[in-house]
Amino acid sequence: MSKRIEVNSLDIYYGKFKAVEDVSMVIEPRSVTAFIGPSGCGKSTFIRSLNRMHEAIRGAYVTGEVLVDGQNLYAPSTDPVDVRRQIGMVFQRPNPFPTMSIYDNVIAGYKLNARRMKKSVADEKVEKALQGANLWNEVKDRLSESGSSLSGGQQQRLCIARAIAVEPEVLLMDEPCSALDPISTLAIEDLIQELKEQYTIVIVTHNMQQAARVSDRTAFFNIAGTGKPGKLIEMDSTDVMFSTPKVQATNDYISGRFG
Ligand SMILES: Nc1ncnc2c1ncn2[C@@H]1O[C@H](COP(=O)(O)OP(=O)(O)OP(=O)(O)O)[C@@H](O)[C@H]1O
Ligand SMILES: [Mg+2]
Q: Which residues form the ABC transporter domain (predicted)?
């Protein structure tokens, strides 16, 4: 169920402003790909274009291609709602639905899709997703409590459970650990390692150690100056990127000389 993503000559706009220019890359299935680069270089913009969340912003559009197992995400016949079900997203700040119980948070994707489901089937899906997000043992006796009663790290794992409950093929994570303490961060990193056996995972991170620890491949984005578009500078296996990158700017960034 894990899928390969191929991006060809993608430009990403907010109205007249071109935020990201000419990105081409391949994201392999059953692997973790990290996006790194200085603030404003377009990492969030680019990751949102991989599940058609970008165009939810008024005036925002892309040119170029994103192929998921060969299928063009931006073809007129492709339904964006369907895309977002297949390609799940986890955001920087844990965003459980505050008025919903832990249980309802996990099953929310199905309810939004207006599917009717037997209680026993729903119970099974909730348990499986919470097991998958390494949260089950901590919440199994309090499933009817509010999602906001959990700690920050637990809430982020709840959001991951919510994302994987609908069985997506790809999981996109935009700085999923930046609001978390070190222990919760390690729990999420362990989880990412487990999830990559089933999913194609993309993670944006500002934390170089994290990119080095969790990812198989790393893509470095950079920006030439304010108002200029962000570009993909270099992408390679994480080992190569952190030891012998080909571009000087990559080396400067990963060794902390800027950004
Ligand atoms: N909703 C928006 N409308 C207009 N411009 C936007 C919008 N969101 C982002 N931008 C612009 O697009 C560019 C890229 O922003 P983006 O948020 O993708 O960067 P980023 O690499 O994720 O940065 P950070 O590391 O700070 O999260 C920036 O110039 C930003 O101001
Ligand atoms: Mg961002």
A: 5-248
Residue 165 domain-assigned (yes or no) = yes
Q: Tell whether ligand 1 has an atom less than 6 A from the beta carbon of residue 42.
A: yes
- The rounded distance, in Å, linking the Cα atoms of 45 and 241 is 22
Q: Of all protein residues, whose CA lies closest to atom 5 belonging to ligand 1?
A: 14
Q: Is the pLDDT of residue 179 over 90?
A: no
Q: How many domains does the chain have?
A: 1
> Which ligand neighbours the alpha carbon of 226 most closely?
1
- Other CB atoms within 10 A of residue 144 CB: 9
CATH number of the domain that residue 205 is part of: 3.40.50.300
Q: How many CA atoms lie within 13 A of 244 on its CB side?
A: 0
**pLDDT the model gives residue 112:** 66
Distance 158 CA to ligand 2 centre (A): 21
The letter for the amino acid at 54 is H
Residue 259, in any domain of the structure: no
Q: Cα–Cα distance between 240 and 59 in angstroms, integer?
A: 38
pLDDT of residue 117: 83
Mean pLDDT of 133-138: 94
Overall average pLDDT of the 155-184 stretch: 92
Domain that holds residue 147: 5-254
Cα–Cα dist 105/101, whole Å = 6
* Residues 207-222: tens digit of each pLDDT: 999 999 999 999 999 9
Q: Whose atoms come closest to the Cα of 56: which ligand?
A: 1
Contact indicator for 202, 126 with CB cutoff of 8 Å: no
- Helices 182-195 and 152-165 cross at an angle (nearest 10°) of 20
Please name the residue that has the structure tokens 């919440």: 139
